[in-house]
Write a structure and sequence with these properties.
The complex is a heterodimer of chains A (283) and B (288).
Chain A: H1 4-7, H2 14-31, H3 33-36, H4 74-110, H5 112-126, H6 130-141, H7 145-172, H8 175-182, H9 187-223, H10 235-244, H11 250-278
Helix pairs in contact in A: 2-4, 2-11, 4-5, 4-7, 4-9, 5-7, 6-7, 7-9, 8-9, 9-10, 9-11, 10-11
Chain B: E1 2-13, E2 18-28, E3 32-37, H1 43-51, E4 58-67, E5 70-71, H2 77-87, E6 88-91, H3 105-115, H4 121-134, H5 140-145, H6 153-165, E7 171-175, H7 183-200, E8 203-207, H8 211-217, E9 220-225, E10 228-234, H9 235-240, H10 245-252, H11 269-287
Parallel strand pairs in B: 3-8, 3-9, 6-7, 7-8
Antiparallel strand pairs in B: 1-2, 1-4, 4-5, 9-10
Helix pairs in contact in B: 3-4, 3-6, 4-6, 6-7
The chains are: A mainly alpha (283), B alpha/beta (288).
């Protein structure tokens, strides 16, 4: 009756706390950006251009993290940038997950021609270089938040499909599926009630990973100026601007880059932590 | 009156290769029939065909399956599923994969009661509790709240037996239910299946390759070779005087622990050749 695996307390982990903490902080920052920002993120002040962060000698305490070459407050811009990054992460990540996981589940459990069509589609899709594909899509769709989200869903659904398909296939071969069938469950009922719960830990891990990837893709698109309107502060855009003045004002590049790095890392670590939490054997 | 009656059941692979060759057999109400044969003889395939869970690559190409006098294959899929779910059940081979790892035990037992028979959940849970007691599980309430990985293999098999008997089916197909268990647990599980079968007066189709088990549990048996029925007889008659040469050889090949060295003899080649010829002749006749 006792199972030693149940006794191993996976430290619910520094990992989960740190990553969750950073993301929570980010969510709060994004929600309360208008209240927290000391300045208007678009306000330029050429007399206050390239002010260094607070600990440097010439710093102005009004600009905690310094200013960029147009004198815009970095902290305020990063707070507003977090809004876009998180919106994209949540919306694009979730949509990608829904589309990809559904197709993967259909392919892996129903097999037959549905599997054939979906799998070939995945193969063809994966032959495109993703970033170029995204840039192409934005060029066609036009810039804007909706276009970014569509682009991310369109290029990344295959990541879910492949993994969920394989997982659903191996679960579908288990005896408990046959038992459920004998007990009169419909195929759809089995896919939903028997297979899905066992694939869920994988889906959750992938979902958070995907959110991190969505943040990166958005940053890349902003970096090449294909994200949303150019005034709007985005981390990718800030990195692109910072790159031009890296020798005069390193902070313009480093702060958004660091935020980006921490966010992506946190998403993937959160996924790992949650996967353990969702798995009944590891729980 | 036979509860399950299979006639001329033929199952083929998609490429036409026959897996079951016009198999006919009856299981009377309350009777235990053993299904024996070598690996790959099609023992499990018969059970799967009856329960409608043939693997993807196999197809039912002929024959009839009467369950409680009703032609299953003539029913539309949904009605067939419900009929099977209400009247028959499976005790699977491997208890480790036969329970859904992410669901608690309780609902897995009550599923069929609630979904097919339309019971209320509290009633179904009370029934599950009763059944778990019946299969000698010490603390049914705790087990119902457990996940499968928290139970041992033997306990899981007990849970599966309880679950099979939940809807009072009149036919249970046990697909080598003790093969995946420890030898010590095997005996208990066998005894339990026997006990449950007698108490509930269920017809049982018992798939096995262990003739020792056959003599303990069943009243009649069907011997299969390459998906063809070789012999269909009562247990007493079989062990006293098997009719077919292959059955004789199979019986002689059973290891005896009174004579561990002398008894390990395989079925002789000439008998295999003879039975292969018989199957080939049958095929030729079948394809005409």
């Amino acid at each position: 009756m006792r199972d030693a695996r149940g006794d191993i307390r996976h430290l619910p982990g520094l990992r989960l706390w740190l990553s969750g903490g950073w993301l929570l902080l980010l969510v709060l920052a994004a929600i309360f950006a208008p209240m927290l920002s000391p300045h208007d993120p678009l306000e330029q002040d050429l007399f206050a251009a390239r002010l260094p962060p607070f600990w440097e000698q010439d710093a102005d305490p009004a600009y905690l993290l310094g200013t960029d070459s147009l004198g815009r407050d970095l902290l305020s811009r990063m707070l507003y940038g977090a809004r876009l990054a998180l919106t994209v992460a949540l919306v694009a990540g979730t949509l990608t997950c829904l589309v990809g996981a559904t197709l993967g589940l259909i392919a892996g459990y129903y097999r037959g021609w549905a599997d054939l069509v979906i799998s070939r589609l995945v193969d063809i899709w994966m032959a495109f270089p993703p970033v170029l594909f995204a840039i192409l899509l934005i060029a066609v769709l036009g810039t804007g938040l909706t276009s970014i989200i569509i682009a991310i869903v369109v290029i990344d659904w295959t990541r879910f499909s492949r993994v969920v398909r394989a997982e659903a296939m191996s679960q579908g071969a288990m005896d408990y599926v046959a038992s459920a069938q004998v007990a009169g469950r419909s195929r759809f009922g089995i896919a939903l009630a028997e297979i899905l719960p066992n694939v869920l830990p994988t889906i959750v891990a992938l979902l958070t990973l995907e959110m991190g990837i969505a943040v990166i893709v958005e940053a890349i698109l902003s970096f090449v100026n294909l994200s949303i309107s150019t005034d709007e502060p985005t981390w990718g855009g800030m990195i692109a601007e910072g790159r031009t003045s890296i020798y005069q004002a390193w902070w313009v590049l480093v702060f958004p880059l660091f935020a980006l790095f921490l966010t992506v890392l946190s998403f993937s670590q959160l996924g790992e932590g949650l996967k353990e939490y969702f798995d009944p054997v590891l729980r | 009156m036979s509860y399950l009656s299979i006639q001329d059941l033929t199952v083929r692979l998609r490429n036409g290769l026959p897996l079951l060759r016009k198999v006919s057999l009856d299981v009377k109400s309350g009777e235990v029939r053993a299904l024996v044969g070598e690996s790959g003889a099609g023992k499990s395939m018969i059970g799967k065909a009856v329960l409608g869970i043939l693997p993807r690559a196999a197809r039912l190409t002929g024959g009839t399956i009467l369950l409680d006098g009703e032609d299953l294959l003539a029913l539309p899929p949904k009605a067939r599923r419900q009929r099977i779910g209400a009247k028959a059940a499976l005790i699977p081979q491997d208890p480790l994969t036969a329970l859904n790892p992410s669901r608690r035990i309780g609902p897995q037992i009550t599923d069929r009661l609630v979904d097919i028979l339309g019971w209320k959940r509290p009633e179904a849970e009370a029934r599950a509790f009763e059944l778990l007691e019946e299969v000698h599980i010490q603390s049914p309430r705790r087990v119902m709240k457990s996940y499968p990985h928290e139970l041992s293999g033997g306990m899981r098999q007990r849970v599966l037996i309880a679950s099979a008997f939940a809807a009072e089916p009149k036919l249970i197909i046990a697909d080598e239910p003790t093969t995946a268990l420890d030898v010590t647990v095997q005996k208990q599980i066998l005894k339990l299946i026997r006990e449950m079968q007698e108490r509930h007066q269920t017809a049982l189709l018992f798939v096995t390759h262990d003739l020792g088990v056959v003599s303990k549990i069943s009243q009649s048996l069907t011997v299969l070779y390459a998906g063809k029925v070789i012999e269909d007889t009562g247990v007493r008659a079989f062990f006293d005087a098997p009719q077919h040469a292959y059955s004789k050889a199979l019986l002689a090949a059973t290891p005896k622990y009174t004579d561990p060295d002398g008894s390990l003899m395989p079925v002789p080649d000439n008998i295999i050749a003879a039975v292969e010829r018989e199957v080939a002749a049958f095929d030729a006749q079948m394809n005409e």
